[in-house]
Amino acid sequence: MADKTAGDPSKDLQEYDIFRDSFKYFKKKKPPPDLSTVVELSTSDSPEVERISVLQPSLPPIRGLQPWQDWKVFCHKHMPGFFYIRNPFLSGYQEYWIRRCIQDFPCKPNLCNLDAHIELSDGDNIWELSQSSDTLSSQDKTLVDRLRWVTLGYHHNWDTKLYTADRHSPFPADLDYVSRYLVDVLGLSASFKAEAAIINYYHMDSTLAPHSDHSEFNLEAPLVSFSFGQSAIMLMGTTTKADEPVPVFLHSGDIVVMSGASRLAYHAVPRIISTAARLLPWSKAEKPHSEKGTCSHHEQISTSDSKNVGGRDWSQCDSSAGDDTLLKPFINSELPQNSESQLEWFKNINSYIDESVKNSNFELFHKYLQQIRINMNVRQVFKPGETFQDT
Ligand SMILES: O=C(O)CCC(=O)C(=O)O
Asked: How many domains does the chain have?
């Protein structure tokens, strides 16, 4: 790329913000950018991209992921500590997380951008309010369209850029566990604990400006980022904006982990890429993996009786009927601390995920994702064993 500092003596080459130029280039509508330089990490034949093998994890896998041996994990020479996992979800199981992001996570006690405009109470469900046309005003119908972000766990304060003890709600155990599992498979940290997350809901014209994530007290713990729905271009840089970032494509199901030198690297999302419905993972009207009669690796660790989870008879539970409110205490609580309760929780969550995926109708979620990209961005806030008293 041409030296953009040429002819501008006021700009020191070291300080020149090449990242911003790249962001503007990929954001531009007219003329649209040339996407041929955007790296498709899973198919790239560039010598800078390397597929790596992962390690046998110490944790058992949560339901819905392909066996870790089959994961396609890539690194890039210019982004040490950056890992890209090409959609490791079993067919049909991305929907579990998509539903969590659209239907569950925007509910109280979590915070979202709509709090500035309307008073949401316990039990209000933005997705359901947006669906029911007869009882509510037309403004309610657009609530889900106005959703831009949700925060979980320690709620990131956008103004102060701080986490504080008083802005905290329980971090959902399933998201904590799946993040720990991912970090474990990559061999990054035995003590990872998800304590905060930002869920971003991108519209087709949304962008995320160049930034680095440094509000956490623990800046060594990796950052885990999940993409669902429409594709995006992510610009991945270094710790200085004077370095040109690498543009990479992110698609539905892809997971990025930023660790080591990449943990504090500048990154941005300059563009959402319209992805034809036929190219989205669910276009083939796929059934959950287990329904295809395949005995997969993950089934070896399933020990629970799916009919009796959390004291409920699951054979009576059709979550498509929206009758899963009784499960909220189970799915919205933190991961149990002691290992016996954690094992019990683990059996229950696996059955819950299976049932939730098999019994739900995801058509409306798929429709929503024809225009939306969701990103779940998970962080550990504290060093192991520390809390606010220790900072
Ligand atoms: O949307 C993405 O892929 C990145 C999101 C991000 O960087 C953030 O929330 O800090």
From this structure: 1
Strands (DSSP E) contained in the chain are: 49-52, 72-76, 82-86, 111-112, 149-153, 196-202, 208-211, 223-229, 231-236, 246-250, 255-258, 267-273, 308-309, 312-313, 373-379
In DSSP terms, 291 is beta-bridged to none
Q: What is the dihedral of CA 10, 12, 18, 20, to 10 degrees?
A: -50
Residue 184 domain-assigned?
A: yes
The yes-or-no verdict on residue 133 having pLDDT over 90 is no
Tell the residue number behind the tokens 């390690």, with chain if given.
55
Ligand 1 atom at shortest distance from the alpha carbon of 202: 1
* Domain of 145, in residue numbers: 35-282+365-390
Cα dihedral 208→211→216→218 (10° resolution): 120
> Has residue 53 been placed in a domain?
yes
Distance between CA atoms of 12 and 14, rounded to whole angstroms? 5
- The answer to whether residue 152 is domain-embedded is yes
**79, 243 contact by CB (below 8 A):** no
**270: amino acid identity, one letter:** P
Report how far residue 41's alpha carbon sits from residue 255's, in angstroms, rounded to the nearest whole number. 12
Q: Considering the entire predicted model, what is its pTM?
A: 0.86
User: How many angstroms does the Cα of residue 269 sit away from the middle of ligand 1?
Assistant: 7
* Residues near 157 by beta carbon (within 8 Å), at least 6 away in sequence: 163, 164, 167
pLDDT tens digits for range 40-96: 999 999 999 999 999 899 999 999 999 999 999 999 999 999 999 999 999 999 999
pLDDT band at 8 (very low <50, low <70, confident <90, very high): low
314 located within any domain: no
Binding-site residues, ligand 1, Cβ < 6 A? 198, 200, 208, 213, 225, 227, 234, 250, 267, 269, 375, 377
Please, which residues bridge with residue 151 across strands?
A: 111, 198
- What are residue 255's DSSP bridge partners? 85, 226
Domain of residue 200, CATH code = 2.60.120.590
The per-residue pLDDT for range 196-211, each reduced to its tens digit, is: 999 999 999 999 999 9
Q: How far is the CA of 84 from the centre of ligand 1 (A)?
A: 14
